[in-house]
Amino acid sequence: MTTSSGAPFWSGPKRPPTVLSFEKDNDLHIDFILAAANLRAFNYGLKGSTDRAFIAKTADAVMVPEFVAKQGVKIQSDPKEEEKKEPEGASAGLDDEDNICAEIERQLPTPSSMPGYRMTASEFEKDDDANFHIDFITAASNLRAANYKIAEADRHKTKGIAGKIIPAIATTTAMVTGLVCIELLKLTQSDSKKLEDYKNAFCNLALPFISFSEPIPPKKNEVANGKLNWTLWDRFDVNEGRDLTLKEFLAHFNDKHELEVTMISSGVSILYSFFTNAKKLKERMPMTMSALVQEVSKNEFKPKQAYITFEICANHTSDDEDVEVPYVRYKFRNF
Asked: Is 176 in the same domain as 255?
């Protein structure tokens, strides 16, 4: 392959890639398969495995067909030619991708044809060392590096890049950590501390400048002429020792707080509202709150999850006026 000037395409800084053949004794190859297989297992709700010997033996027994390059494919080696073609084919390429996606979506089975089957999306989390996210990124990028014979990166460096971790100056970090720890120590002595004993700190080491100020109390919200007072730090704790039905949940606020709940939401899902279809409301009233969340949001609870957060809108029963209330921390499981 040559460029428009006749020079070899793979020359100078352009390194030609080399094919990697699987080797069961190569730790990097096993790292990639182990991480990829466990990620896929999580997607399908299967139990993964970290048995490297088993994975190496199983992978080595797989017969992979020899790669055969597709005929009639022209790889553009001249950037100028590619720039000329891009404006013409840009929209066509997008249309083609949309058609391909639509066709794949059309071929997928309908949810109703697969009752009880559910896939779980894997959301990137760099700080969980047991989820194989950083392990997969490290192995995949290092295999790519091996293709092009460039320097590989260790897991620590990969985690910093993938997680966009920005290094901080040690002196600033130490100062902030020290100031925060002092305030935390005051919290442990909260019985003997007043609000003015706590301090906000404003610091600029470049000047240098350090200043302290007293925090102001949080805004207090009053409901129904002072019958209910709350701040940003407050919440409704609902813990009846069991999972309440929607009907019981509504009655709880009516009886204990004189509030008529007009809407309940969890995340982006509206679970109950006064304008909901009457037939649907009748079906939902006897459902437990946890079952209602699962049905509406289509999400599963984590095995050790005991609480759900609800946002509610309500009227006070004394005057039927809308009132602003804190969020609800609802306990639906006891461990």
From this structure: no
Tens-place pLDDT, residues 253-290: 999 988 999 999 998 889 999 888 889 999 999 999 99
Q: Report pLDDT digits (tens) over 53-104.
A: 999 999 999 998 888 888 887 766 666 666 666 555 555 555 688 889 889 9
Asked if 328 and 309 count as a contact pair (C-beta separation under 8 A), the reply is yes
Same domain, residue pair 149 and 52:
yes
Give the integer Cα–Cα distance in Å for 175 and 205. 10
Same domain assignment for residues 316 and 176: no
Same structural domain, 145 and 265:
no
Domain with residue 28: its CATH number is 1.10.10.2660
How many other C-beta atoms are found inside a 10 Å radius of the C-beta of residue 238? Answer: 19
CB crowding 135-145: b at 16 or more within 10 Å, else e: bbbbbeebbee
Looking up residue 262, the CATH number of its domain turns out to be 3.10.290.60
pTM for this model (two decimals)? 0.49
- Domain hosting 303: range is 221-331
